[in-house]
Amino acid sequence: MRPALLPEPVGLKFVPLETPPDWDAEFGFTGPLELEIGSGAGGHALEYCRRNPGVRFIAFEWRKKYARDTQMRGEKLGLKNLRVIESDARFVVPRIIAPGTLDCIHLQFPDPWWKRSHAKRAVVQPDFAKLMLGLLKPGGRFDMRTDVQDRGVAMLRILEEAGFHNPLGTGVFHPYDPEEVPSTRERRYLASGEPVYRARLVKPVP
């Protein structure tokens, strides 16, 4: 029997579930490996890759239009360090990323899922937070941003309880850093002055 295969993602061939792909071979060079969960319209992924050509960047987006548009724009820009995967990160990330191999995980403005009955669809759940911690190298970073304060508080608590270290103290959001790369959505908030709740967490070094 042939091994189960992922649905064909954008910019990447079929990947057997039994073993993660060789990212060195896929990108054609070595360097930091970073992941974005929910890249949306691609504003952050594209600009981040442009500014950091030595970073290998895997962007997950389940909406076909956004995923394919981001990959197409990346190709037009000549970005060799971007791969866009059109799939649900919650189910695919554990299959294609080996533990202890990521340098950074980016999660920006995830859907808050307002209805109580939909809360289980939120990306940051205790089990997934522990999984993400395990995928990072010691000292690896988790970059989170949201425009919903209550959701930010909840995510920050879950991540800290999973073992992430908050350099500013438990439950403390981080200030805006002008060196950060904003997403398409965040640029609107920066222009309007609306608040964004940020956290830059770290996996502890043993």
UniProtKB/TrEMBL annotation:
InterPro entries: SAM-dependent_MTases_sf, tRNA_(Gua-N-7)_MeTrfase_Trmb, tRNA_methyltr_TrmB_bact. Its EC number is 2.1.1.33. Keywords: Methyltransferase, S-adenosyl-L-methionine, Transferase, tRNA processing. It is an enzyme of class 2 (transferase). The keyword DNA-binding does not apply. It comes from the Bacteria. Substrate binds at K115, D147. It catalyses: guanosine(46) in tRNA + S-adenosyl-L-methionine = N(7)-methylguanosine(46) in tRNA + S-adenosyl-L-homocysteine. Pathway: tRNA modification; N(7)-methylguanine-tRNA biosynthesis. S-adenosyl-L-methionine binds at E36, E61, D88, D111. The keyword S-adenosyl-L-methionine applies. Catalyzes the formation of N(7)-methylguanine at position 46 (m7G46) in tRNA. Belongs to the class I-like SAM-binding methyltransferase superfamily. TrmB family. This is tRNA (guanine-N(7)-)-methyltransferase. It comes from Corallococcus praedator. The gene is trmB.
